[in-house]
């Protein structure tokens, strides 16, 4: 299983926290029919994306991108010590898997210059903070944390009405520590990192493209959760705030990167997770490199 990729002048590391069953495919993807699942079951199982009970297998991971100038962590996964009662595998976790993975890739928490969040869902912000003497503090103390303005404003409004635990314990402490930057979609980091708006899953969901002068790699977050959504871009996840917009965004993204050399790095595809987008029928596949 490859955890390291090189493309252009970038080195990309996968930091895996969990790779495991998540939800039944027919539950996670409301537009999926038993017939369509049946037609795709064999290749999905061969790809490690589906188990014998038709439950989707997802990877929960961060990517660490080393550019010539910066070390950037994308999406900080699930985290430890966080109350997540709806998800037993995430609830009050105390394992060292994530930090061991980071160390195995050759990084300490002090090495991260930027943390970039595609969106602010629970499994993308968890390691933004860690518990220290009963307080949430930035896990990456020297990093600037970048939040897209549309996304940040959306969750600020939602949280004002009813507390959103991951926003309270994994985003607001970063704001209080003055380590955050709320940025618009024209924001760039040096000449290597750019923001690509990809709304639908959440209103301010973004992808990140990396490379000097061209997109050597793109990090798609929750634009798609499972390879079957590349094959059938109209299949939106039940967690997508706007399922129709998510489907349109997904097809547009796949068309944009189809048959290019850009390495596509989805948040949740099963290992090896990354690949290049190729056309297949009226849909697409993410072919492992």
Give an account of the 3D structure.
The protein is of the alpha/beta class. It has a single domain, classed as Ribonuclease Z/Hydroxyacylglutathione hydrolase-like (Metallo-beta-lactamase, Chain A). Helices cover 24% and strands 30% of the residues. It contains 8 helices and 16 strands. It has a 7-stranded mixed sheet with strand order 1-2-3-4-5-8-9. It has a 5-stranded mixed sheet with strand order 10-11-12-13-14, with no helix packed on it. A two-stranded antiparallel sheet has the order 6-7. The radius of gyration is 18 Å and the shape is globular. The two termini are 12 Å apart. The mean pLDDT is 97.
Counting copies of identical and different chains, the oligomeric state is: single chain
Mean pLDDT equals 97
What is the CATH architecture term?
Answer: 4-Layer Sandwich
Number of domains: 1
Radius of gyration: 18 Å
**Unreliable spans:** none
C-alpha end-to-end distance: 12 Å
DSSP E strands, number: 16
* Number of helices in the DSSP assignment: 8
Name of the CATH class: Alpha Beta
Question: What is the CATH topology assignment?
Answer: Metallo-beta-lactamase, Chain A
Query: Proportion of β residues?
Result: 25-35%
CATH superfamily: Ribonuclease Z/Hydroxyacylglutathione hydrolase-like
* Order of strands across the main sheet: 1-2-3-4-5-8-9
Order of helices and strands: EEHHEEHEEEEHHHEEEEEHHEEE
Structural class by helix and strand composition? alpha/beta
Residues in helices, as a percent range: 10-25%
| Overall geometry | globular
Most strands sheet: 7 strands, mixed
């Amino acid at each position: 299983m490859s955890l390291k990729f090189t493309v252009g002048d970038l080195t990309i590391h996968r930091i895996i926290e969990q790779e495991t069953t998540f939800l039944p495919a027919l539950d996670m993807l409301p537009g999926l029919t038993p017939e369509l699942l049946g037609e795709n079951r064999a290749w999905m199982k061969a790809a490690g994306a589906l188990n014998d009970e038709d439950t989707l297998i997802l990877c929960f991971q961060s990517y660490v991108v080393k550019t010539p100038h910066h070390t950037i962590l994308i999406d900080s996964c699930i985290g430890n010590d966080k109350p997540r009662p709806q998800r037993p595998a995430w609830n009050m976790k105390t394992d060292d898997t994530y930090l061991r993975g980071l160390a195995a890739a050759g990084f300490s928490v002090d090495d991260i210059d930027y943390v970039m969040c595609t969106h602010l869902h629970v499994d993308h912000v968890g390691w933004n903070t860690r518990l220290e003497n009963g307080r949430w503090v930035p896990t990456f103390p020297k990093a600037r944390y970048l939040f897209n303005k549309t996304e940040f404003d959306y969750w600020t409004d939602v949280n004002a009405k009813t507390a959103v635990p991951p926003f309270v314990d994994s985003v607001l402490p970063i704001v209080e520590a003055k380590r955050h930057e709320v940025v618009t979609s024209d924001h760039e980091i040096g000449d290597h990192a750019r923001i690509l708006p990809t709304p639908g899953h959440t209103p301010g969901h973004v992808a990140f493209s990396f490379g000097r002068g061209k997109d050597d790699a793109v990090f798609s977050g929750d634009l798609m959760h499972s390879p079957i959504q590349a094959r059938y871009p109209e299949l939106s996840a039940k967690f997508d705030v706007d399922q129709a917009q998510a489907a349109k965004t997904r097809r547009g993204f796949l068309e944009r990167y189809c048959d290019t050399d850009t390495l596509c790095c989805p948040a949740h595809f099963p290992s090896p997770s990354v690949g290049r987008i190729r056309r297949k029928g009226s849909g697409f596949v993410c072919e492992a490199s």
